[in-house]
Write a structure and sequence with these properties.
There is one protein chain. This protein is α/β, with parallel strands linked by helices and 157 residues long. The protein has six helices and five strands; from the N terminus they run E-E-H-H-E-H-E-E-H-H-H. The chain has a five-stranded mixed β-sheet, with helices on both faces.
Length: 157
């Protein structure tokens, strides 16, 4: 587990529940923290906040997805907003699903992971793509801007 505070005012704790993340992507914790901080900065939040990001496997995420969303399958990312300002909440990612999706979409796994961390962080900040077309367009546009600043191509093109 690593914990650092970024210049954007976001403290990010990364918990590695599946060690294969480190083998598959050396420096994964640094990449995850950078993506979360970029999303926080891109949202223009100024109050100091924190987030916990867990890097798990498909089995763990499938269990949570079945319990919390009634979908008995793994998903790439789950976000659990806390409802507090100082602690935004938790994000959990499923390694096998993230890698499979990256292969299927012809993307670098590191770039796909970065996008999903940005996406999950924006959910914790109150953005939601499932509440309507206008909200989805707003969230996707913000994701694109943040990812461009990180040197990552538009994930929706």
């Amino acid at each position: 587990m690593t914990r650092t505070t970024g210049s954007a005012g976001l403290s990010c704790t990364v918990v590695v529940l599946d060690r294969a993340w480190r083998r598959a992507l050396p420096g994964v914790e640094r990449r995850v923290r950078r993506a979360a901080r970029a999303a926080f900065a891109g949202s223009r939040r100024t109050a100091r906040s924190s987030v916990v990001i867990a890097l798990a496997d498909d089995a763990r995420v499938r269990t949570l997805n079945a319990r919390d969303r009634r979908k008995d399958k793994p998903t790439n990312v789950l976000s659990y907003p806390s409802g507090e300002k100082a602690f935004l909440g938790d994000i959990i990612l499923a390694r096998q699903t993230v890698w499979r999706e990256a292969r299927e979409q012809g993307k670098a796994a590191a770039d796909h992971l970065t996008h999903l961390v940005v996406h999950g962080t924006l959910h914790l900040l109150g953005y939601d793509h499932e509440t309507g077309e206008a909200d989805a367009r707003r969230m996707e546009a913000l994701e694109r801007r943040i990812l461009t600043k990180l040197g990552i191509a538009d994930p929706y093109s």
